[in-house]
Design a protein that fits this description.
By secondary structure, the protein is an alpha/beta fold. Helix content is 55%, strand content 11%. The protein has two domains: 3-196 and 298-317, no CATH class; 338-489, Rossmann fold. Strands 6-5-7-8-9-10 form a six-stranded mixed beta sheet, with helices on both faces. Helix 16 (373-382) links the parallel strand 5 and strand 6 (385-393). The longest helix has 31 residues, at 63-93. It is elongated and about 95 Å long. The relative contact order is 0.10.
């Protein structure tokens, strides 16, 4: 189910908060016990095994599991209500020959198709807008309201569990921007099924009425503001997909002219208008399915595919958990190659023993950016890294840079040192992307600047955010030249 991912994210954050008061040694021992001797071959498999073990340890009673259940129940209820709403709307507009007036084709189209399509267009525009609206805050709030209402009606309402679930979800949204794209895309994908159900309900009511009752159709406007030729041209284009392919549901000028209706006289424009008016319903059904159901279905499937692709490397968004899981992973860490004859990594001198939560790191100085040994150790300690290899790149020797990427190190993380005053140009961004493609690991871009709030640091963060890659993080390395030291700040 689509909401299983949201439950998974909630559980990860909830469990990490539960572990904040425990020591590193205790957590490492506990994680190994949970794995039960399993040897995951990669970080994603390790995350899945860890989460499954933690849920099993808690008897399956986790906040994420409960949230997934409530959201699934809410989703099913809303889909059912949307189906009934679509059927009711269509039923209210459909009329037979015995009615005072036949079904107005234009009113039916506007109520069941045009306005929902306008809502779809508005949703896509809001999705494209940056800022608060573009982050779909309203959609999330609506789900939270429904989640709280459903929780209060459930048997567990007396325990206050529903309010806890809502609070944890809000905390996830505020403190877990690393999941923001997954959360919004999942909710948008699920929300498409409500208009899909509405259109299907209207289509079912229309089909049932046409097959089992006697429906009459016509069209009319105030003061004859719409000419038959215009309406015929519109429906000729709209019905082209099924009319040209299957020869059904075609709307010709003769049908439009014959079914023009006057409410003042209560008669069709041509005597046989009532007899031929039944030819309208296949065209209306085709419009509902082709322009109502199909676009929403494609959007939902596209968003679902986007969520699956971006969640394939979920562990890269939770770097603190990935560091913990390094201790239970089977990794092959041969000595890094020496591309381009650059020689062995520069010695760092004596370094403290890495803790169980540190990641072995490949340090690359971009266009001459470098740190002293002690300064580099301080940066790595702050970022929970340990330097295992050092190289240089970006000095104009493109063949050397390509050789460096081809012989990419197998270390679990990359720290790319850059000077803040350097522009984050296309070459830099392409090198960062190449580093990400070369291995399943996070890339920290350490920007050496004089202050954490400097304009150059904001530029780096803005330009690298265009990559849309949660595995790329910009970290400030604040320089203090008078003291000869540097400090890394997140």
């Amino acid at each position: 189910m689509a909401f299983a991912l949201l439950g998974k994210l909630l559980d990860i954050e909830w469990m990490l908060r539960r572990d904040e008061e425990r020591s590193s040694a205790e957590l490492s021992r506990h994680d190994r016990e949970l794995m039960g001797g399993a040897s995951p071959a990669g970080p994603e498999q390790a995350l899945e095994l860890w989460l499954e073990a933690r849920r099993r340890e808690l008897g399956g009673r986790t906040l994420g599991g409960r949230a997934s259940e409530l959201l699934s129940a809410l989703h099913a209820g809303l889909v059912g209500l949307s189906l009934l709403a679509g059927a009711g709307t269509a039923q209210a507009l459909l009329r037979g020959p015995s009615a005072r007036e036949p079904t107005n084709v234009l009113s039916f189209i506007f109520a069941t198709l045009v306005w929902p399509l306008a809502l779809l267009t508005g949703s896509l525009l809001l999705l494209a807008v940056r800022g608060r609206i573009g982050r779909s805050m309203l959609l999330e709030d609506l789900y939270l309201v429904g989640l709280g209402a459903l929780g209060r009606l459930s048997r567990r309402a007396a325990t206050g569990e529903s309010s806890v679930v809502a609070q944890q979800w809000r905390a996830l949204s505020r403190g877990g921007r690393r999941y923001r794209d997954l959360e919004v895309a999942t909710l948008l994908s699920a929300a498409q099924w409500y208009p899909i159900a509405f259109h299907l309900g209207a289509a079912l009511a229309l089909t049932g009425g046409a097959l089992f009752t006697d429906l009459a159709f016509a069209w009319s406007t105030t003061n004859d503001s719409l000419e038959p030729q215009t309406l015929s041209a519109v429906f000729r284009v709209a019905a082209a997909p099924w009319c040209n392919s299957f020869g059904v549901g075609c709307v010709g000028p003769e049908l439009v002219q014959a079914t023009r209706f006057s409410r003042f006289t209560g008669e069709y424009a041509l005597p046989h208008g009532g007899v031929v008016s039944g030819a309208w319903w296949p065209a209306l059904l085709g419009c509902l399915l082709c322009y109502g159901v199909l676009p929403r279905l494609l959007l939902s499937l596209g968003l679902s595919a986007l969520v699956r692709r971006r969640s394939a490397r979920l562990v890269e968004r939770v770097l603190e958990l990935r560091a913990r899981l390094q201790g239970v992973m089977v990794r092959v860490s041969p000595a890094g190659p020496d591309p381009g004859g650059m020689g062995p990594p520069a010695p760092l001198g004596p370094a403290p023993a890495p803790s169980p939560h540190t990641l072995p790191c490949w340090v690359i100085g971009w266009r001459g950016a470098a740190l002293e040994d002690a300064e580099l150790r301080a940066v790595c300690t702050r970022l929970q890294l340990v330097s295992a290899r050092r190289d240089a790149a970006g000095n104009g020797d493109f063949e050397r840079d390509e050789a460096l990427l081809r012989g990419a190190s197998e270390h679990a993380a990359v720290l790319l040192l850059v000077e803040g005053w350097e522009a984050p140009d296309k070459a830099t961004r392409r090198f960062v992307q190449a580093l990400r493609r070369a291995g399943d690991r996070p890339v920290f871009v350490g920007v050496v600047s004089k202050s954490e709030g400097s304009a150059e640091l904001a530029i780096w963060r803005d330009r690298l955010s265009l990559l849309g890659d949660p595995g790329v993080r910009v970290e400030a390395i604040v320089s203090h030249p008078h003291h000869g030291s540097q400090e890394a700040r997140a």
